[in-house]
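PROTEIN DESIGN WORKSHEET
SECTION A - STRUCTURE
LENGTH: 473
TOKENS:
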């Protein structure tokens, strides 16, 4: 159990509403128990800071070098041999977004930000290289570009879109031809460095959300209060947003005071920490809001194709940045329709720490949420385990004993970008584990959310950040 939690509760199986299947009369077979056998191949003791990505025959990712500097690494998936490395920079991208490489197909290229002469300046060049040889194919920015949102493909993967600045104080959208590195558009007319992208063509100005047109001009701008039902919210209290078929869906944290005791114990109510909303991407009209509900649900990763939200209740007590106690905690999970906001199923649970906080960052080693595949999770509540389908709610099937554990940690890059207030960057990854939270040497599946697969080899990160590979047999 979670050693840091001084919680003495009797938790029952929970209740299911809105047409979900009954929890009684479970079959003895375990759902999803069919597994693939894997043969362990190799382990590289590289300190990766993002999950591996397949780029044709190669595996690429950001990692810390021996001197603590950020670099891009390319590996041979068959042997684990390092093919090449190159210096990298996060530029001015918000640290909570982490760092990640971008891969292109036809030809197979890896794209990343290469630092200028002075790393803390945030000046970079955007470079594209052959993923196997490391040969630079094109370079954009000549190391005087500053980027505030990770580069991403757009326009049917033919264009690279990013938010940044070209050798000046003004920021905005920049579009680059993915094949040649030639600039197609620069709409850098905004002098607000605080502007950051939080979803596809949706940016946060510090007081409002703004939707951009394809040419980088502002389509609409609406204050937080207008979007979230006059509630006082801020992305600084946590946020997640995604676009799906013309609807933005996501959560912002509510601005609420902390209560601190004389002993340095910080307590905070878990009730009404977030507001979740659906927003029409074309007009900026709020379609619906749900106060007290969030798509940020601990180890249950938000997937806009299979949307689930949660209501967390009780009080959390923190000591020296670690979760020390939960008082009368409970969780309600809901599947929901993105456009109407209506719940499609509802599940009332008891104290499930992994649905309140991301494991590893606050809750230590304990795991009561285990991911089975893209849409299924094993959830432990009290002395019972359940199988959750994100589309259907809790199932009558018994959950398997092995799956994937999520871990979120912070990586110190040993330098700090001047425009940012920290050198600590967020790293998130999944590693194979048992229902008791023990790490497995080889996985029983090869899901896309946990790693990269190429040439019959699956590559993932261990709990310690090392890079591991196995071949299916």
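SECTION B - SEQUENCE
RESIDUE ASSIGNMENT:
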């Amino acid at each position: 159990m979670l050693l840091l939690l001084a919680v003495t509760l009797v938790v029952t199986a929970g209740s299911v509403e809105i047409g979900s299947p009954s929890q009684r009369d479970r079959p003895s077979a375990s759902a999803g128990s069919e597994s693939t056998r894997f043969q362990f191949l190799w382990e590289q003791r590289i300190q990766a800071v993002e999950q591996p990505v397949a780029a044709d025959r190669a595996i690429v990712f950001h990692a810390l070098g021996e001197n603590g500097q950020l670099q891009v690494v390319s590996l041979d998936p068959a042997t684990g041999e390092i093919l090449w490395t190159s210096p990298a920079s996060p530029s001015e991208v918000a640290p909570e977004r982490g760092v990640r490489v971008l891969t292109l197909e036809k030809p197979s290229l890896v794209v990343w930000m290469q630092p200028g002469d002075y790393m803390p300046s945030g000046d970079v060049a955007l470079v594209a290289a052959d993923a196997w040889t490391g040969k630079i194919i094109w370079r954009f920015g000549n190391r005087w570009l500053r980027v505030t949102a990770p580069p991403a493909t757009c326009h049917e993967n033919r264009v690279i879109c990013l938010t940044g600045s070209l050798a000046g104080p003004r920021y905005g959208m920049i579009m680059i031809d993915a094949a040649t590195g030639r600039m197609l558009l620069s709409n850098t007319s905004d002098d607000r460095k605080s502007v950051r992208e939080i979803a596809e063509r949706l940016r946060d100005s510090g007081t409002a959300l703004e939707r951009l047109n394809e040419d980088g001009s502002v389509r609409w701008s609406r204050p937080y209060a207008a979007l979230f039902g006059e509630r006082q919210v801020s992305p600084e209290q946590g946020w997640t947003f995604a676009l799906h078929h013309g609807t933005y869906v996501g959560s912002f944290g509510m601005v609420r005071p902390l209560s601190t005791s004389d002993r340095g114990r910080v307590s905070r109510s878990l009730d009404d920490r977030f507001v979740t909303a659906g927003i029409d991407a074309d007009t900026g009209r709020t379609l619906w809001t749900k106060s007290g509900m969030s798509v940020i649900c601990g180890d249950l990763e938000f997937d806009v194709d299979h949307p689930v939200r949660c209501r967390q209740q009780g009080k959390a007590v923190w000591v020296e940045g670690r979760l020390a106690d939960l008082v009368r905690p409970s969780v309600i999970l809901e599947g929901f329709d993105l456009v109407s906001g209506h719940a499609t199923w509802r599940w009332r649970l008891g104290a499930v720490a992994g649905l309140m906080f991301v494991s590893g960052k606050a809750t230590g080693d304990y795991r009561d949420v285990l991911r089975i595949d893209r849409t299924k999770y094993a959830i432990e509540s009290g002395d019972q385990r359940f199988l959750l389908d994100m589309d259907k709610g809790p199932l009558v099937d018994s959950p398997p004993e092995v799956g994937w554990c999520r871990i979120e940690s912070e990586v110190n890059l040993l330098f700090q970008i001047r425009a940012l207030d920290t050198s600590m960057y967020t790293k998130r990854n999944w590693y194979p584990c048992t229902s008791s939270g023990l790490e497995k040497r080889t996985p029983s599946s090869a899901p896309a959310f946990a790693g990269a697969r190429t040439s019959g080899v699956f590559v993932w990160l261990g709990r310690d950040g090392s890079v591991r590979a196995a071949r299916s047999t």
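SECTION C - NOTES
The mean pLDDT is 84.
The chain has one helix and 37 strands.
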